[in-house]
Amino acid sequence: MGIFSKFVAKLKGQSTADPLDWKVLEEELLAADLGPKLTAEILKSAQGLKGDDALSSLKEILNSHLSTKSRVLSGENSVGVILVVGVNGTGKTTSVAKLANLLKSDGNSVMLAAADTFRAAAVDQLQTWGQRIGVSVISGKEGAEPAAVAFDAAVAASASQVNYLIVDTAGRLHNKSDLMAELGKIRRVVEKTLAISEVLLVIDATTGQNGIAQAKIFTEAVEVTGLIVTKLDGTARGGVALAIESALDIPIKFVGTGEGERDFAPFDPAHYLSGLIND
Amino acid sequence: MFDSLSTKLTGAFSSLRSRGKLSSSDIENTCEDIRSALLESDVALSVVDSFIDLIREKSLAALPTLQSGSSQAQAIFEIVNSELIEILGGAARRIRFAKNPPTVIMLAGLQGAGKTTLAGKLAKFYLDQGNTPLLVASDLQRPNAVTQLQVVGESVGVPVFAPEPGNGVGDPVKVAEQALAFAKTKLHNMVIVDTAGRLGVDQELMQQAIKIRNAVKPDEILFVVDAMMGQDAVRTAKAFQDGVGFDGVVLTKLDGDARGGAALSIAKLTGQPIMFSSNGEKLTDFDIFYPERMASRILGMGDVATLAEQAKKALDSDSSAKMEEKFARGDDFTLEDFLEQLEAMSKMGSMSKLLGMLPGAGAMKKQIENFDESEIVRTKSIVQSMTPLERRDPKVLNGSRRARIALGAGRKVQDVNSLVDKFSAAQKMMRQMRNGGRMPPAMAQSMGMPAGMGAGPISSKKAQAPAKKKSKSGNPAKRAAEERG
Fold first, then answer.
1. Where are the domains of chain A?
2. Would the pLDDT of B62 be above 60?
3. Percentage of chain A lying above the pLDDT 70 cut
4. Cystine design at A97: which of A129, A190, B228, B371 (Cβ 3.0–4.6 Å)?
């Protein structure tokens, strides 16, 4: 039985929980990386909870902090261009490959652009993935101008009219303004050929409150339209993603749950919230 | 919401300072501020609560023994500072070298913590100290991790032992074993084993790490952890401690704006010291971890020690000696010296990183973040467009010379003027300092750099205005230019 169920069990028959139990609830929410601010908000909404429907009420409170925006990929453009961005080591390249695999298995034609020309062997890594899942990868040399690679890929994708072009970018810390400006440039040059339909920010589930700063600043730079939450197969519950949805209204669109190419799925709110509260 | 821990604590303490005499309720309020700051920094709740209890207890105990208000606040500040240092590892520890080489260092950690990059940085660090490290590619899991290590190894000039192609092919335990034998025959005195990233809950991969450990018997197992990590850091660290075990912690991605509370939790709960920190994308952005410095940074006292060290590294001893000599002879500080210093500064890394280390930097956070790095390049280009004569003696800069320089540097004449004005102000300051005679030349030199640069790069009109005014009355270059008409 999860800690929430225990908490709720205690509530049954009582008008309200005693202070010690609220402390347990606070601990649990903080441990899930929801952060002190969101935790305080949720605790405040939960103060009146009592009786049999407490668990569902709690879930409802959490649910109310989710974004109401659409969680499916935009299908406006004939070639859907998806820019994948994020800080270093969150799993961008792996997510690009998994997303390509998911789209391909739905019957779409997919092309990848290896615009991470900075990290050693990132291009090779994406090419290896490309071969494994059977999609073509457009790449330049290591150290090549990433915007140039993205541009070439956009031209190629437009010519061959694939359903999706997914652009992998180098990991960058959001507080480095020159690297964020580079991202803006990639966006602009791609848009000379094709409109960008999605910008997905990859957030590592183990990330703490810094994830909010990441989402905020990446959004300022390239208008993030959705999140991919990775590494949810560990013990981390990825609560910062809920904090991001709540604070910035950016919906989670996909989750990564393992190392295989199939360990990737569209976001399921009910499943995520259950995991969050260890239900 | 995005205020850093140091900004928050600076706030908490400045309100303490302004209150004069402290009461126990002041301490209670401060403790509450510190608590929420630490929670927002991702410090684990249990660590936060025990830390706060300690601070409260020590502060209350110290309260009656103190006299004036300001020293009371100072005393609490000291308590927090020393407790932070205590948790962050007490004293920095170095790698224990093996009695019989090679010294074996094994890296372990979650996926994406930055192990492979760190392996390269560690190798470079010890190579520069005269060791002969060998990098070992035992991450055969992640696609092209082996290639990545090879590229990293090549760029730092360290050989990489990689008999297996990786991408799921090969036995990482065997690779590690063979590497050890190879290192012995080739007389490498250090072996750094890169391993696959693994989740704390992944028993299979943890077993593999244990097998590698048992095969190579490392002198140090370093747990590599991302400074951005949240509350799960504690559970992960425990899982690694109970699994493969580790002797020290390496904190990566400290150049981000994450508050690094995970470090505090891990150090406190595992009892292992944080030994290194990695703070940039270049393979030289790596250093020994200094708990005192980290605590100072957290508390908003800046990181002057690191700054001074980097300055020393960047200004090679030759040019420093030359500079001191000049200074002692009574020669003037010229634009040539200024250019040399600008170049040395570029070597030290990004300006925003440097400024961030200065005391009180928390208050100027916005300006520092918006610092335009290319301003240095522009300033350099102006000086580089001058003839040697002009650099030595800016007094000759008349209107037509200035116009030529502006054209050459691709800037406006006003930019040239403002640089010359600022330079004159800096030159004047250097003269005053020498005449004052109290500051040792080396120090004057390192202070002259930011002063000479100061007003310009932080592109704020307010900051520039006073410098301009001053120079109108005392700028020989301008006067000379005016005289010539």
1. 3-63, 80-276
2. yes
3. 90
4. A129
Residue among B153, B154, B236 nearest B192 (CA): B153
Would you state the pLDDT for residue B67? 57
If one compares B480 and B174, the residue with the highest pLDDT of the two is B174
pLDDT greater than 80 at residue A119: yes
Residue in A25, A88, A139, A232 to test binding to B, most B beta-carbons within 10 Å: A88
Q: Specify the CATH class of A80-276 in words.
A: alpha beta
Q: Quote the pLDDT of residue A96.
A: 96
What is the average per-residue pLDDT within B452-477? 39
- List Cβ neighbours of A115 (8 Å cut-off, separation of 6 or more): A146, A147, A149, A150, A153, A167, A168, A169, A170, A186
A99/B7 Cα distance (integer angstroms)? 40
> Which CATH code is given to the segment(s) A3-63?
1.20.120.140
Amino acid symbol at A51: G
Q: What is d(CA A162, CA A149) in angstroms, rounded to the nearest whole number?
A: 17
For residues A19 and A47, give the distance between their C-alpha atoms in angstroms, rounded to a whole number: 10
Q: Rounded mean pLDDT of A103-117?
A: 95
A89/B113 touch (CB, cutoff 8 Å), yes or no: yes
The residues with which A83 forms a beta bridge, in sequence order, are: A167, A199
Is pLDDT of B452 > 50?
no
Mean of pLDDT values over B319-336: 71
The residue of B47, B107, B228, B350 whose CB has the most chain A CBs within 10 angstroms, and thus the best one to mutate to test that interface, is B228
- Mean pLDDT for all residues in chain B: 78
pLDDT of A242 > 50? The answer is yes
In degrees, rounded to 5, the angle at the alpha carbon of residue B482 between the alpha carbons of residues B480 and B483 is: 65
Check: CB of residue B162 under 8 Å from CB of residue B149.
Answer: yes
Given an 8 Å threshold on Cβ–Cβ distance, is A210 in contact with B113?
Answer: no
B41 touches chain A (CB under 8 A): yes
B232: closest CA among A217, A228, A59, A275? A275
pLDDT tier for residue B454 given thresholds of 50, 70 and 90: very low
Tell me the C-alpha distance between B317 and B13, whole Å: 40
Is residue B25 classed as helix, strand or coil in its secondary structure? helix
Tokens standing for residue A164:
């999706």
> Cβ–Cβ contacts within 10 Å for residue A68, how many?
9
Q: For the structural domain made of B103-299, what CATH number should be given?
A: 3.40.50.300
CB atoms B144 and A174 under 8 Å: no
- List B residues 138-157 in contact with A (Cβ-Cβ < 8 A): 141-145, 147-152, 155
- Fold entry, domain B5-87: Four Helix Bundle (Hemerythrin (Met), subunit A) (1.20.120)
Where along chain B do its domains lie? 5-87, 103-299, 307-484
Interface list for B 427-466 with A (CB within 8 A): none
B312 residue type, one letter = K
Chain A residues whose CB is inside 8 A of the B231 CB are 30-33, 208, 236
Please say whether the structural domain B307-484 has been given the CATH code 2.102.10.10. no
The residue among B227, B201, B148 whose CA lies nearest residue A87 is B227
Can you tell me the distance from the alpha carbon of B149 to that of A119, in angstroms, rounded to the nearest whole number?
Answer: 11
